[in-house]
Design goal:
The chain is of the alpha/beta class. 40% of the residues lie in helices and 18% in strands. The chain has a domain of 218 residues: NAD(P)-binding Rossmann-like Domain (Rossmann fold), CATH 3.40.50.720.
């Protein structure tokens, strides 16, 4: 099967491409390299021992994307591409709506023109907004507290409408919780440009001495230690979930929705302490004001994915921190 991966040079995309290649899929990567680097593509090939096809194309470039589909003879698409920082989306919402939603519309149009009917969409737990209760199941109401999340909500709605119009489509909406960690080789990992927006790469850059201290946004949430609680999932577990979703689409399930998480929440301070233990480094931190768009707690009920996809996250917080630290120490400046 030939799988086109949008955003395949990025953090989640690169790890998923490794798993796809190892599982025997032919992989075509489309990436604008706006917030990723081509070096990750070379390392995907190095880890997997297999070649992939790479095209530097922005999804807003419809003619460029059309040429890729003409050449590639695609069987299925995994759609990761998009701007992805919650805080940034609050500051520059228009850029997020234009890039993420318009780019997705172009992709779906080109897929339709070329008769590609199988899609795995990279959604997010942000579509649940601030949930009324925990853990979160797939039938919770959909909303958001920031433009990044609203982009995911809107794209999910577009895909639901496309499926209603054409029930021969097979679409998996995968709602991720908080991906962390890196490939165990330390060759690929999360490489944020500038100051990281996500907690674990921020902690790791403090641990390696690249940043002076961690800012913790708020310690007055209604949680055990006052800091935000999230469901952190190892990137390799998340990547394997995409293989399982592709296998599910082969059975023509229609439109399906799955949470990909561990079902357990960790606070910011718990993550800081776990990382200090894994790295042997002290993590200096400072409590600052809450960040716009953040919520107190968020963790999954992943039982539906376990039942339908035969998928379950297997790596614990120690592996998440150890693999992040290995990537960070081997690549203190990311892919540069």
């Amino acid at each position: 099967m030939r799988v086109l991966v949008t955003g395949g040079a990025g953090y989640i995309g690169s790890h998923t491409c490794v798993e796809l290649l190892l599982a025997g899929y032919e992989v075509i990567v489309v990436d604008s390299l706006i917030n990723s680097r081509e070096e990750s593509v070379r390392r995907i090939e190095e880890i997997s021992g297999r070649k992939l096809e790479f095209h530097k194309v922005d999804l807003l470039d419809k003619s460029g994307l059309d040429r890729v589909f003409q050449q590639a003879k695609v069987d299925a698409v995994i759609h990761f591409a998009g701007l992805k920082a919650v805080g940034e989306s609050v500051a520059i919402p228009l850029q997020y709506y234009k890039n993420n939603i318009s780019g997705s519309l172009v992709l779906f149009e080109v897929m339709a023109q070329h008769g590609v009917r199988n899609l795995v969409f990279s959604s997010s737990a942000t579509v649940y907004g601030d949930p009324a209760s925990l853990p979160i199941t797939e039938d919770f109401p959909i909303k958001s507290s920031n433009p990044y999340g609203w982009c995911k909500v809107m794209i999910e709605q577009i895909l639901q409408d496309l499926y209603l119009a054409d029930p021969s489509l097979n679409i998996a909406l995968l709602r991720y919780f908080n991906p962390v960690g890196a490939h165990p080789t330390g060759r690929i990992g999360e490489d944020p440009k500038g100051v990281p927006n996500n907690l674990v790469p921020y902690i790791s850059q403090v641990a390696v001495g690249k940043l002076p201290e961690l800012k913790i946004f708020g310690n007055d949430y209604p949680t055990p230690d006052g800091t935000g609680v999230r469901d952190y999932i190892h990137i390799m577990d998340l990547a394997s979930g995409h293989i399982k979703a592709l296998e599910k689409l082969a059975a023509n399930p229609g439109l399906v929705i799955y949470n990909l998480g561990t079902g357990k929440g960790y606070s910011v301070l718990e993550m800081v302490n776990a990382f200090a233990e894994a790295s042997g480094k002290k993590i200096p931190y400072k409590i600052v004001e809450r960040r716009p768009g953040d919520i107190a707690s968020c963790y999954a009920d992943p039982s539906k994915a376990e039942k339908d996809l035969f998928w379950k996250a297997s790596r614990d917080i120690k592996a998440m921190c150890a693999d992040t630290w290995r990537w960070q120490t081997k690549n203190p400046n990311g892919y540069e």
